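Please, structure for the following, as tokens.
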Amino acid sequence: QGFLDSWKIQKELSKKRSSGELNHDVLLFLEHDPIFTLGVGGNVENILSRNSPVDGEVVPLLRINRGGEVTFHGPGQLIVYAIFDLRNYGKDVHVHCRKLEEIFVKYSCTIGLDVLRKEKKPGLWKDDFKILSLGIGVRRWITMHGVSFNVSPNLEFFKMINPCGFVDEQIGSLE
């Protein structure tokens, strides 16, 4: 799924959810072609290179309407976007984020993988390796975007950025 197509779908669903035309929450499960996305306040200096380690082609970069810094999306990642109306969940963005993480905490337990959260850092880690990133956008209590879970991506792409703005962040995968 191309990122731009999924972003368009998210915007359409968000608009319908906000207007009441769509009367239920939606989870989108996707996998993208390689792309870097940068949150609203993200710093382009956290992008170190855009030449793909696979074929040398320039990896697309798109600034989008979510929080957070730069991240990579690509093959081998499970992307889950949540179009939720937080007015039905206490209008609490932080609780929403923790619930998205919790899906993968519970899944990890079922396969015998112990993951952990780090205080004041969204996402999940296995030991010192971040395996799940989180970034959302909220407008009028309707959420967009969500999480990327590294199942088996080419980790060389993460060496092209300071993931989530952290210079020393180590990225890992389920594989």
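The beta strands are 26-30, 35-38, 61-63, 70-73, 77-83, 116-118, 121-126, 129-139, 142-150, 170-171. The chain has a mean pLDDT of 94.
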